[in-house]
């Protein structure tokens, strides 16, 4: 995540992140669970592994769930937002797995190239990066820190919001179901649309991954504008 994109995650937004994320993404917890299940399956037979978690700030759902499934894995959690990383660390500590997670308040590009990671998780990050070249650079930064053949589980919004008015209307209904007023719904939608720039399509995601040195991604989860994929660093 770039310095400009992470600046919006101030302490107030960090505090409300978990609740709002679960409304905005129908199936939030299911997605995190499936990401853990896919990664565990992809690395089957490898007991002790180290996983890079990119944009790890927030609920730490991907770390906690994966750690529960794989008790011998360790994690390096990277996020440039101090409030969001602090929130994640509090969740990890509450789950009793703090000794298995190293938190780094930095960009991926600041990490050393060695030692390399066996896999990476990046959930809900790519659409917060406005420029296509910065999206591509982040994916390349991840790729060069993975072992050849290492897995990446990637999830996020993957199509232009205005390209799908039906999905956008259904999205608004999610907040209505959770008690938001019409004014609140308009504010929330405007905030999302102003603060995030998803790739134009799943094909665009695949193209970004290919440019960074990853294989053709396999989608395993979808919810309105959101999707999740597994891919590998090419040998």
UniProtKB/TrEMBL annotation:
The keyword NAD appears for this protein: no
SUPFAM superfamilies: S-adenosyl-L-methionine-dependent methyltransferases (SSF53335)
Domain of life: Bacteria
GO molecular function: methyltransferase activity
Alphabetical keyword list: Methyltransferase, S-adenosyl-L-methionine, Transferase
Pfam family, one: Methyltransf_12
EC number from the UniProt entry: 2.1.1.-
InterPro entries hit by this protein: Methyltransf_12, SAM-dependent_MTases_sf
A GO BP annotation: methylation
Signal peptide stretch: none
CDD domains linked to this entry: AdoMet_MTases
Methyltransferase type domain boundaries: 54-152
Protein name: tRNA (Cmo5U34)-methyltransferase
Organism: Rhodopseudomonas julia
């Amino acid at each position: 995540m770039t310095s400009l994109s992470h600046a919006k995650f101030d302490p107030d937004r960090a505090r409300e992140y978990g609740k709002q994320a679960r409304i905005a993404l129908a199936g939030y917890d299911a997605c995190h669970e499936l990401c853990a299940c896919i990664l565990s399956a992809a690395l089957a037979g490898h007991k002790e592994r180290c996983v890079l978690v990119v944009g790890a700030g927030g609920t730490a759902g991907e770390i906690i769930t994966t750690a529960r499934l794989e008790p011998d894995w360790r994690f390096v959690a990277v996020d440039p937002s101090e409030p969001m990383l602090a929130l994640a660390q509090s969740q990890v500590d509450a789950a009793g797995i703090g000794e298995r997670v190293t938190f780094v308040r930095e960009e991926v590009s600041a990490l050393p190239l060695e030692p390399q990671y066996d896999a990476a998780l990046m959930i809900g990050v790519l659409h917060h990066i406005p420029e296509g070249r910065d999206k591509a650079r982040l994916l390349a930064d991840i790729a060069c820190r993975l072992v050849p053949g290492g897995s990446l589980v990637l999830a996020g919004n993957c199509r232009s919001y205005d390209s799908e008015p039906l999905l956008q209307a259904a999205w608004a209904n999610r907040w209505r179901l959770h008690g938001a007023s019409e004014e609140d719904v308009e504010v929330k939608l405007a905030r999302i649309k102003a603060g995030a720039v998803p790739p134009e399509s799943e094909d665009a995601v695949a193209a970004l991954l290919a440019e960074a040195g990853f294989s053709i991604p396999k989608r395993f989860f979808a919810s309105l504008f959101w999707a999740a994929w597994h891919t590998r660093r090419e040998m």
